[in-house]
Amino acid sequence: MYIYKTRGICPPEIHFQLAGNILTGVRFVGGGCRGNAQLISRLLEGRELSEVLPLLKGIQCRNDTSCPDQLFQAIQLAREGKLREEEPITVYEAPAYYQRVAVIAEVNGNVEALRVALRQPVEAVFCLGNLTGPAGDNDGVVEMVQREKLVFVQGPFDRTLPCTKPENREFLRRAPLYLRFQLGRCRVLGFYSGFIQELSGFSDYAPYSLELLMVSNLSDYLRNESVFSALEAMTEQFSVDLVLFASTNEWKHVRLGKVDFINVGPLKEDGQFKYALLEWAGEELQVSFETVKE
Amino acid sequence: MAEAVKALPQEIKDMIEVHEWDMRTREGIKRFLELKAKSLPSIALDNELVFEAVIPPQEDLIAAIKARYAG
Q1: A207 and A136, same structural domain?
Q2: B40·A227 Cβ contact <8 A
Q3: Residue A168, SS3?
Q4: Is residue A101 part of a domain?
Q5: Most exposed among A24, A254, A288, B56, judged by the fewest C-beta atoms under 10 Å?
Q6: Do residues B16 and B69 touch, judged by C-beta distance below 8 A?
Q7: A217 vs B24: CB contact, 8 Å cut-off?
Q8: Half-sphere exposure (CA, 13 Å, Cβ side) for B65?
Q9: Which of A18, A47, A79 is the endpoint of a domain?
């Protein structure tokens, strides 16, 4: 994906992809006329550059340029190799609807702990990252994850603490950064932490960046209660109803406005196994932190 | 909030320089925390929070600006 910082127009960024000479995924983000921008994106989707570029070039709106003209300039820079293609911030969208799931985090290479988690009476287990750890059996965990088809997102350890086997390293490298699934009528988003914003493909205006920044940068993972009023106001703009995250080794559930925030702690803690049980029952979300003794 | 500032009389606008921070961005959040703000929307004058969680009536905003910068 390319991220172009605009000049002289309302949207601060334009995002797009090039597959050879085919333009896809054009998004004008962060401001401007949303309706018009979406129409332009749809009209340009999958079209050849030879067809598109003459349409975009030189259109004037304000400051001697326009959204189409800025897109023209961005594509030219990309073709000349002067605009870097960024690492995509990947999202896994679970195709199924769920009623009862377990959410874990910080497996840290503990095969036995993961085995316990996978035995729980739920429809699916999701992991919010750090399958691997500094002193764990990382290859063992990754191989179990592949066998059991566990859905997980990357944590920082998964990017920096490689497995010994190259195929396992590659498996971790290709894992998504965000998880999306549906629990009853509840739209759920999961991620490990704010480390995603340090990746080159991160944009403040990309899908789910708002939710991530509100959790990590504004509320310090719900530890700064003085900003809860502002956080609640910002939830009006969220695209999901439930935000799951890890990273602090804490267990917490807070509801602000219409959004639930759940901090998931480590899978193994004080000799016990812990997970968050999320259930859609009686037309509402039920959350509990479950403990399984060794 | 920005609309309240844009709607100020020109003589008042001439007394100030306006910056608007977008809370959806890292820069906006950083500024919000620097100001030790707690609620939205907020207005600060010279790095000091003057209005929080409210869009002030225009006369209150003008009075606050004049108290700092007039004469």
Answers
A1: yes
A2: no
A3: helix
A4: yes
A5: A288
A6: yes
A7: no
A8: 20
A9: A79
Short-list A118, A86, A83, CA closest to A103: A118
**pLDDT one digit per residue (tens) for chain A, 294 residues:** 999 999 999 999 999 999 999 999 999 999 999 899 999 999 999 999 999 999 999 999 999 999 999 999 999 999 999 999 998 899 999 999 999 999 999 999 999 999 999 999 999 999 999 999 998 999 999 999 999 999 999 999 999 877 889 999 999 999 999 999 999 999 999 999 999 999 999 999 999 999 999 999 999 999 999 999 999 999 999 999 999 999 899 999 999 999 999 999 999 998 899 999 999 999 999 999 999 986
A273 with A186, same domain: the answer is: yes
Q: Is B25 on the interface with A (CB under 8 A)?
A: yes
> In this structure, are A24 and A95 located in the same domain?
no
For the record, the structure tokens of A39 come out as 């129409």
Domain count, chain A: 2
Cβ–Cβ contact B24 with A under 8 A: yes
Q: Are residues A42 and A152 in the same domain?
A: no
What ipTM describes this predicted complex? 0.89
Domain, as residue range, for A263: 91-293
> Residues 86..105 of A with a Cβ closer than 8 Å to B: which?
none
- Mark whether A197 and A272 lie in a shared domain: yes
Asked if residue A101 and residue A43 are part of one domain, the reply reads no
The answer to whether residues A200 and A131 belong to one domain is yes
Q: Does A124 touch chain B (CB under 8 A)?
A: no
Could you tell me if A156 lies within 8 Å of chain B, comparing CB atoms? no
Closest C-alpha among A64, A270, A100 to residue A184: A100
The C-alpha of B14 sits at a distance from chain A's nearest C-alpha, in angstroms, of 23
A279, HSE (Cβ side, Cα atoms, 13 Å): 11
* Contacting residues of A for B39, CB less than 8 Å apart: 229-230, 233
For B24, the closest of A210, A226, A230 (CB atoms) is A210
Q: Which helix (H) or strand (E) holds A285?
A: strand A284-293
How many domains does chain B fold into? 1
The Cα–Cα gap between A147 and A290 comes to: 25
Assigned domain for A86 exists: no
From chain B, pick out residues whose CB is under 8 angstroms from the CB of A213: 24-26, 29
Identify which of B22, B29, B39 has the shortest CB distance to residue A218: B29
CATH code where residue A99 lies: 3.60.21.10
**Do residue A213 and residue B24 have CB atoms under 8 angstroms apart?**
yes
